[in-house]
Specification:
The protein has about 210 residues and is α/β, with parallel strands linked by helices. It contains eight helices and ten strands. The chain has a six-stranded parallel sheet, with helices on both faces.
């Protein structure tokens, strides 16, 4: 990666981390995926019950593989026939893992969801939330973060899932009411009332969508 991009990521990450701290959330910066994995495992005690939403970033740093191979009770909804039971188990988990569709310079988290299992677990339930967020997700303000979530993350995910939505066909949000829409729930997390619950690992790399 170009050294100027590396420096920019380091500096911007410190601004985002200060914003997160002002909102009663914890922020960390990892220069690369290996460091992000190390930080994430430090936040997850062995023996913990861990589950997740559909975060690509969590897979990309190797965290899912590490949890499956380690001393953790990892609930993998992709390997459980009863998907509803697997999703409901998240609400009483020790740790919930997630990516983030967008984050502002001052630490506001923006996430959209189709089934709402991911955003509802981010909002309440699991004792600890660990988010893996590539620096490509950082936006200047809330308006920019909402636009990114709707016009970048949503179309790519709709295409990834093979859905028949206008955004999957054009690459841009149409504010649709398609039966296949994944933009059913919007969650803006601007403050955490529970200190020590939300942990955001910013990664100096392009992760997720």
């Amino acid at each position: 990666m170009d050294k100027n991009i590396v420096k920019r990521n380091e500096l911007l990450a410190q601004t985002v981390i200060k914003g997160l701290q002002s909102r009663n959330m914890s922020g960390y910066y990892a220069a690369d995926r290996d460091e992000a994995l190390r930080l994430a495992l430090e936040l997850i005690p062995e023996g913990s019950t861990v589950t997740m939403g559909g975060g690509m970033s969590v897979h990309e740093i190797g965290l899912v593989k590490a949890l499956k191979e380690g001393n953790y009770n990892f609930i993998d909804r992709d390997e459980i026939a009863d998907k509803r039971a697997a999703m409901l188990a998240a609400y009483d988990a020790d740790v919930f893992l997630s990516g983030c569709n967008a984050i502002t310079n001052d630490g506001i988290l923006v996430n959209i969801d189709g089934n709402a299992n991911r955003v509802s677990a981010i909002a309440y339930g699991p004792k600890k939330l660990v988010m893996i967020v590539g620096m490509n997700k950082v936006c200047g303000d809330l308006d920019g973060a909402m636009k990114r979530a709707r016009n970048v993350a949503a179309p790519i995910n709709a295409q990834r899932f093979g859905l028949s939505t206008p955004c999957a066909k054009t690459g841009a949000c149409f504010d649709c009411k398609s039966p296949d829409t994944i933009c059913c729930q919007f969650l803006i997390t601007r403050f955490s009332r529970q200190a020590g619950r939300i942990h955001v690992i910013l990664v100096g790399d392009t992760l997720g969508f």
